[in-house]
Amino acid sequence: AAVEDMDADDLADLADDFVYDYVIVPSADDAVAAVLTNPNILSVVVRPGFTERTGGLLRELDLPARQAGFDRDGWRAAQGIPAEAHVISLFCYEPPRLPELLQQLATGPHTTALLVTPGRATAAVQAALALPETPGCQGQIGLQANGIRRNALSISYLSHVAQPAFDEMLWACGLNLVRGEDSLVRALWAGQAFVW
Questions:
Q1: Reported pTM
Q2: How confident is the model over 2-29, as pLDDT tens digits?
């Protein structure tokens, strides 16, 4: 019988016979194999991963060559960062513990250069610096919001840059604090310690 000629009970019986199979696989090869071996599969979700059988992380073809030619010490010197400094990039939303992190960096045993990306990260750091004085620190957690170094921490507010320049900043840092999936991938390719 044609669907148009069926009543509600007949249509319900058809719906009960319908089976919707789906499969989640790690690679396109697995997706093809799943569909070929199970004709009931109507949908395949490919989850990329980090094995040779998956798509892996996307990158530009010239990325390894750019990284190999990158002069980390030269980049840091061009930015006025002392050679002995621990360099950290900050690309974040509004982490609630940011004031404590800044305090620890300011009063820590090592000179630290914090490179703060524009936008929400800059606003978050500036808001943290405007908090009331934290016990044990001078002024507003020992820092000044204008980028001048005080104690062990210097803060540099960066301008917007193109992706290659952002990558170089990640490569130059010993620790990258990043947000979002795209920045996670860039931090992974940077090959430096990171927190996502």
A1: 0.68
A2: 656 666 666 556 555 545 555 677 677 7
